[in-house]
Request: fold
Amino acid sequence: MGVAATIRPRRGADARYRTTLYLLLAPFLLGVVVLVVLPVALSIGLAFTAYDGLSAPEWRGLANFRELAVDPLFHIALRNSLVFVALTVPLRLLIALGLALLLSRSRRGVGLYRVAVYVPTIVPSVAYALIWLWIFNPRYGPLNLALESLGLPAPAWLIDSTTALPAIALTALFTMGEGFVVVLAGLRSIPAECYQASAIDGAGRAATLRHITLPLLAPWLLLLTFRDVIVSAQSTFTPALLMTGGGPYYATLFVPLLMFETAFDHFRFGQGAAMMLLLLLVVGALIGLTYRAVGGWGYEDEI
Amino acid sequence: MSRALVGLLLAAVSLGQSAGAAEPPAERISFMVFGDIAEKAAYEQLVADFTRHHPRIQVSLIHIPSQGDYRKRLGVDFAAGNPADIVLLNYRRYGAFAAKGVLEPLGPYLERSRVIRERDFYPQALEPFRWGGALMCIPQNLSSLVVYYNRDLFDRAGVPRPTDDWTWDDFLHAARALTRDTKGAGRIDQYGLGTEVSIFRLAPFVWQNGGELVDDPKAPTRLALDAPLTREALQWFVDLQVTHHVVPDLAEEKAESSERRFLNGRLGMFLNSRRGVPTYRTITSFDWDVAPLPRRRQRAGILHADAYCMPKGGRAKAAAWAFIEYANSPEGQRSIATTGRTVPSLRALAESPAFLDPGSKPASSRVFLTEVPFIRAVPVTEGWIDVEDLAGEELARAFYGRAGIDEVIATTIQRAAPFFKRQRN
Amino acid sequence: MARWPRRAGFHAAALGVTAVFLVPGLWVVAASLRRPGLPPPATIEWLPDPVAWSNYARIFEVLPLARYLANSLLVAGLAVPLTILVASWAGFAMAQLPARVRHALLALAVMVRMVPLTAVWLTRFLVLRELGLSDTIWALLAPVWMGSSPFFVLIFYWSFRRLPVAMFEAARLEGVGPLRIWAWIAMPLARPAVAAVALLTFVQYWSDFMNPLLYLRSDDRYTLALGLRVLQQLDATNWPLLMAGAVVMMLPVLLLLALMQRAFWPAADGERAGASLGRLGA
Reply:
């Protein structure tokens, strides 16, 4: 294992070396400022204005937020987004964990299985949405044809307001590939001695899982959860746009979609920014709650 | 001798220079349109014809297939500061942009034009494009809603073909006769009627029943869907699916759209404006024609009109106007009329063989002209299209049996209220 | 001997999972080969009859899909080297700076990664508009300036941190500059990281839908993602064509994944290959 090189200040050559390092860092930092820091700052500012993209922004104070507080569409969108996060994050985590445990050891053919599990993650989102749109088609789609041939109930999926959101959530369960890879890496980083020790103690597989594996994986899982909460709050845009357009009757209206339409359809960028700010606050609160709930499992480790 | 040569050379050079100087640089303008593939081809032909007449103006066509995305695209373009030089806009949608003052009024250009005159156009087409008294855009077409029908299916089922004065009852009767299970597989695979579910499709039926969509068409402040005659028409429209099942239900519609079914010969009648003709002309497997809307207490049609608008702040206004002028001259309008896309807004051209050509489908094109005196427009306000969008959402709930019409009417009126506060003009 | 049932059990479970993940792909391919315009099938069709390969030709006729494909390839193809450059430089620099700076940068990277894209859509659009980049390929490529994702910077960072310091020290004492060290020593040893970042970058730009939707106006600059969306808007229920389009869009990334599989997964032989990707944190 390597130990990082630390530069001890040592005169001209080192100063030059360090300067060059900073130069190498510069494009990234510049990019972050222009592409993230600046837009986020603008977003926060814009949330307090009315801006239609054409004339100058007009300060409105808290008026945008007051309007959102009573806007039924925003309430629906926020509720849908939260339900979606609540549905998908735990399930994705469980599936990623389960699959990683199943496929962690280097057996014959495991490489193929891992790739199979990872494939949906790299399917482009537009193609992915169209594919599921067809799979879920109540008359033509193979899913319902399969269910009918097995004598099972064949719901209307995306065109029924009670099943539409769960359907989109279902599509999100297949793309847990990134989490799968993370947990896999986490499993591999557990030193073999831990397993040997528990085997010596006579612990069975379930006990090993509970007392060795999971606690050691905990920080990974926690970080994964945080990341997934953020991602799930916004990954609904493409599926909702392409599969249902927010319907049927707003059952799949999520905040990113509402924000997009508010800004680019009704030319209300200020209102859109306010929505995003609120969503961020709610998501931040969720993450904070999660951290509290698990009692700060994460321990200080060099990430 | 050498002096003469030098003189010749100088003359040649200066001639060459002046010839070069006399050539103004080629102007590039962009023209944004919506529509499907066949409509895009129609505009490509128009652009090609224009380029033959004005070789120094290069027109690039920007094509956006869906109307919904079109508005977003235009909004983004305005926000980005680079809208197209010429934009095709429907009269129901241009209000949002006119209200923001981003369109150049074309009335003065029309007055100064030596190629086209205001009085040559159908007034019904021009009227909706007046905003605050000024003419904003030049309309290319006016069309009513008509019934496209599959002649072969009618004949095979023994249903009499639509006549010029057929009624709602005749219409329903035909639709029911044409909704059948043709393969005996226990599932309806042929429907009698297909239509978009929207207030815009509902409107002519409301008017025919003697009702109104809004409280005051000139200065609307609320939707009037709860008025008895309006409600009656709405109920009839909704019953087409909910009670009579002559229209595909939601699952069927999502599996195969009504228009697709019509193109594949599995739908008896489809409601659309003239816009569909370029696509329907590609049909080879069956014979089709158009019929006027069935009538009830009175005759009424609904205006479909698209116009060429010019965003302000463009840098090639003269060239853009040259294109708009050409597109709406008899020549330009003939060019696009031959593709079937439009009912020309120039009266003389609409009544000429360019539009009424007996050799091209639909054979009964005259129907579009006989409807003109009865055409009415929906209100033109800044927020009308938003009213239409949300009313469409609500109407779909009733149409596909998810909610009762009184609940839907109440919700729609309440939700539409804020959009009427933003007034026109 | 006691291993047999377990091994069989493992394979059964793994195969079951694989089936669930891959069978829909078969359905898609089957659907793309169906003749358009037919009434719906009565049961699942594993292979339609007749097989309509013409669908794949048709999607290129209905739309200038070939140009969209080329545009997508151009964007993704440019993004990969640019990203690798910016991300590996940043990761390399971070790996060698003093601890305080390093930790600050790590915190920055993690925080930036937590910022959802939707928070910056609108205002990034406004910023890039001011820079005059609307409707250009540079608006689509803008994220390369931050290495396309802080995650990629982190991948390189972890890779370089695992290299023995002696190598760097020796070169530095000989007066070799950081750029040279990066090019001749660090990068060749970070091949798995390069492979991973290349694949993920390609996928990110190939799949990108939001940015082309916002920034591209001219029809001839559209990417494939936007092209598929247009295909859907032109004929929303023409499933054979839509599925053919989806297949065309998926093939390049699947191919890339297959090719890079080796470098991507923790290899049975080298801890090094996997370890570089080892700490794939959030």
